[in-house]
Long-chain-alcohol dehydrogenase 2
Amino acid sequence: MLNFTYYNPTQLVFGKDTIKTIGNHVSSFGIKKVLFLYGKGSIFKNGVYDTAIASLKEHNIDFIEVSGVKPNPVLSKVHEAIKIVKNNNLEGIVAVGGGSVVDSAKAIAAGAFYDGDVWDFFEGKAQITKALPIFPILTISATGSEMNAGGVITNEAEGKKWGFGSHLLFPKVSILDPSVQATLPTIQTVNGAVDGLSHVFEAYFGGTSNTDMEDELSEGIIRTIIKHTRILIEDPSNYDSRSELAWSATLALNGINGVGRRGDWSSHGIEHGVSVFNDIAHGSGLAIVMPAWMKYVHSTWPEKFERFAEKIFGITEGTREEKGLKAIETLRAFYKEIGAPITLKEVGVEKKDLDFIADTVAKQGVLGSLKRLERDDVYKILEIAFE
Ligand code: NZQ
Ligand code: ZN
């Protein structure tokens, strides 16, 4: 295990009927006027908008709404909201939706106190020194953004989907009522599940040995996500399974599953290159890219892939190599079973596009920890992912 400091100051309020507490939480920070940020309108269909607004009003909190944050959120929307925040001296952000809304809130929160372009933080040209307090109401479990300090935004003008982070961006309080996720289209539940699994894999297969505690935790999260995603596909309103999936996805990327070991994160880097190219959902991109990455790197760490095979899928027959490969195929079969895409071809990418995607990914520099990946490695992984 590597040395680590674990720090996570986000207060997570989890469970049924918790959204109505938003006003109380915001006012407990002495905040009187907020940006109320959301996506394309799902919050009107499941009652989240009405409940949250009623609670803010009850606590005499003024708000200005900005809507229309899209999946794979874009910098222009962040710029638009920063202007509104600055012009109206808003004191906090209530971010209602999924990772796209919460990540946008993080960029707005940091941009609110910066005179230059918020994109400077992504390019490493400036450091975040102050940020507005953020209060997410999460409506889709996937990214862990509700309890971590990172975000991902697409700079559509430059064709870059990049991440940024600062300990100042941990949400103050996040509200997670799994029951409101019953309205998710099945593919979104699936995207969330794949994203949660992928966050665990990035840490699990990062290359650090002697991390038994973390591995056991990872394996618990993986098994829980697989089990409850299957249930939710049949029964989307199953509250117990919604809760299990939601808490698993939070644990997958609130830092606790990552401590004491390096993460790899090259599959995420490659996926961001894919989704900046054709705007597919992050989880769908990962279902395609991550098993391809696994195929490319598994021989670097056969012991770990054998452990994965045995502990997750109960694969005990064959050589170490065979078990690892079988586990990767079983994971792919699971993704197919739950309706996730498993090839780039299926999502409209053509063979001739792979060069462009590899070049886009390469703008991030060399990727990976288990195996360092140059641009040509990325291209080979994209070829495996193609069909
Ligand atoms: O926009 P609305 O109408 O709200 O619809 C959303 C959106 O279309 C819909 N939705 C959300 N809750 C719903 C619902 N529909 C019905 N009922 C509900 N209860 O779901 C769609 C997807 O929402 P989005 O926020 O895009 O999903 P997700 O949470 O998966 O976020 C994905 C973004 O987060 C980034 C991804 O790259 C992507 O841009 N990531 C952020 C990370 C982080 N901050 O730590 C890490 C991740 O690895 C990831 O990169
Ligand atoms: Zn992810």
User: Anything to note?
Assistant: The chain has a mean pLDDT of 98. The pocket of zinc ion (ligand 2) is lined by residues 143, 195, 198-199, 268, 282 (CB under 6 Å).
